[in-house]
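Researcher: Let's walk through a ligand-bound prediction step by step. First, I give you the protein sequence. Second, the SMILES string for flavin mononucleotide. Third, you return the three-dimensional complex as structure tokens. Ready?
Model: Ready.
Researcher: Here are steps one and two:
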Amino acid sequence: MGNEYIEAARVFHEITKHSYTSVRASPHFLDWDNKPMPYKIYPGAASVALPRDLNLSSTPTLAALSSYMPAEFSAAIDTAALTRILFCADGLTRQKRVGDDDYHFRAAASAGALYPIEIYVAASDVDGLESGLYHFSPADLRMTGLRRGDWRGYIASAAAKRPSVLHARVVIAMSAIYWRSEWKYRARAYRYCYWDAGTILANMLAAAAAEEISAEVITAFDDPALEALLGIDTEREGMIALVALGRTEQSAAPSPAAEPLTLETIPLSSNEVAYPDLVKIHRESRLVTADELATVAAAKLDSARPIPSTGAIHLDTITSEESAGLGETILRRGSSRAFAQEAITAAELATIMAASSEHPQADFPPLTDTYLIVNAATGLEPGAYYYDRDARAFELLKAGSFRGEAGYLCLEQPLGMDCSALVVYMADLERALAAFGNRGYGDAHLEAGILGGRAYLAAYSLGRGATGLTFYDDDTSKFFAPHAGGKSPLLMVAIGVPRSRTKA
Ligand SMILES: Cc1cc2nc3c(=O)[nH]c(=O)nc-3n(C[C@H](O)[C@H](O)[C@H](O)COP(=O)(O)O)c2cc1C
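Model: Step three, the predicted complex:
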């Protein structure tokens, strides 16, 4: 039926909600013998090694999170800069031995450490790299060559001639292999894939800013054209976003036809399971016809319902120079596994919220509103808050200690109870769907992932901890009612003092 049939997103959202009862009634168990491999491997395909002496950026993290290069800025991109961006987005940063197995953790958080996102790179004008379409392989820091030549013109045509793509030196294409996340989260994995792409994007955009390279995120594109280019099987791998990096004055080469790609990939596990509800929402969100693409590319969001102010609280923030360098932050980042029930300062919280709230350069507008439960922040009364992203101000909705509620809402995980603040990204999904069709559903979740990823980076850059959390959907909406009337929670991020680690 297509992108305009928004009942598809409504139904999908409803049937993938978590509740106290649904979690207990679920018969699902984890089949460890069938756990999908987190890497896409093309055996036998030629690949190029990326440089390993990376010298990651020392630009203060908070500066990288709040700055953008204007799209007209045309700094060169060389292989080293491109590698730093890819490594900061999705590189392997830590290793842990559990039993007989080595687990590798990456630069960005991923729900369940399942890493469903794949990154493809269309290089047009990169010093030291032959123009071509590549697949990024984080495991060995290499890129597999998929197609030779300059594919920018082809991708720009698929992206409604978006100027940033038409002039990009590099276009990144991000997809999700749903099965990796479905293995644990079943159909709800569709949401997780957007969150995980968002945390990767938070890192990628900060790394690009630190390199003084412009970056724009695009989600309005012709899905079949990109699937054909990347050679992906649309039933199991879906396009999530494009990122246009840098600007070149070289005009895009005429687009050759994308002949079918015949490269084999290694199966991820012995038995891939497809969840029909996920397959359906993915199908109904694809932009297939020229009309669908043009409608979404030109869509405008209705103004939001006015939100009555309960009184703005402006707090001092910390200067960028006091935050760790971006490279150090990314290597230091990991999800806190336990918090110490200690306070962070109001200035730290205000700084993290401001950094998180920055909307990326994107072809979709801000769709997400931010709410919080403040458990312990010196200088800010405990309570439930709305955070005004534009005014960078807190508004107290109800005062009091809500540690118990915070712990309950995030699926009864102690992390919510013990953190200093539980950040809740919410959206009026009906408004997003009315403007962008089902595509707006993915956009809102992607944006929440980006904002959540930014909160992670800001927290770690100040020596604090963070973790993404999932939640009971309707109970969270009820908790923030009536202020959050009509809004759905999209993602939670807990911020706090990691247990057994005092501030560096
Ligand atoms: C969207 C999202 C949801 C997450 N949900 C939870 C959660 O509910 N509980 C939890 O303990 N960790 C959660 N995490 C943290 C992941 O488990 C963690 O990112 C993953 O294990 C990788 O480890 P790292 O972040 O330390 O690199 C979540 C992370 C993301 C990005």
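Researcher: And what stands out?
Model: The chain has two domains: 37-294, 312-496. The chain has a mean pLDDT of 95.
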